[in-house]
Specification:
There is one protein chain. By secondary structure, this protein is an all-alpha fold. It has one domain. Helices cover about 80% and strands about 0% of the residues. The longest helix is centred in the C-terminal third of the chain and has 26 residues.
C-alpha cells in the first residue's frame, strides 16, 4: 500500500468517525439507540434506530473503502441535515443550551460541506 493510499484510508476513516462510532454505539447498545430515537419523537423507534445504523455504518463504509463514495457521502450529508431540526433545533431553546446547540449546528453544516467535497472529488 502506497503512502497516498494509506493516507486516503486514514483520512476517510477520520472524516466518518462521528458516523461509524455512533452507528456502532447504536448497534452494540441497541436499546439505548431505541431510547434515543423515542426521546426525539421518532416512532417506531426500533425502525428508526435500525435505519440510522444502516445509514451511518453503510455510508461510512462506502466512503472509507472508496466505493460509491458519492452515495455514502450524500446519504450521510442528508442524514446530518435532518438531525438539525430534529435534535438540534436551537431556535426553540433557552440559553445556555441554545448557544451550545447553535454551535453544534454550525459544526454539522461544516461536516455537510466536507461530505460535499468528498462526493465531488470522488466522481
Amino acid at each position: 500500500m502506497t503512502g497516498a493510499t494509506w493516507f486516503g484510508y486514514l483520512a476517510r476513516t477520520v472524516l466518518t468517525f462521528m458516523f461509524w462510532a455512533s452507528g456502532l454505539a447504536k448497534l452494540i447498545g441497541f436499546d439505548a439507540g431505541v431510547a434515543e430515537m423515542a426521546h426525539f419523537g421518532l416512532e417506531p423507534a426500533t425502525l428508526f434506530n435500525i435505519a440510522t445504523i444502516i445509514v451511518q455504518l453503510g455510508g461510512s463504509l462506502l466512503i472509507i473503502f472508496n466505493r460509491w463514495t458519492w452515495l455514502g457521502a450524500g446519504a450521510l450529508a442528508v442524514f446530518t441535515a435532518l438531525t438539525i431540526p430534529i435534535a438540534h433545533n436551537f431556535w426553540t431553546m433557552e440559553e445556555p443550551i441554545k448557544t451550545i446547540e447553535f454551535h453544534v449546528v454550525m459544526e454539522h453544516i461544516t461536516v455537510i460541506g466536507a461530505l460535499m467535497v468528498v462526493a465531488w472529488k470522488s466522481r
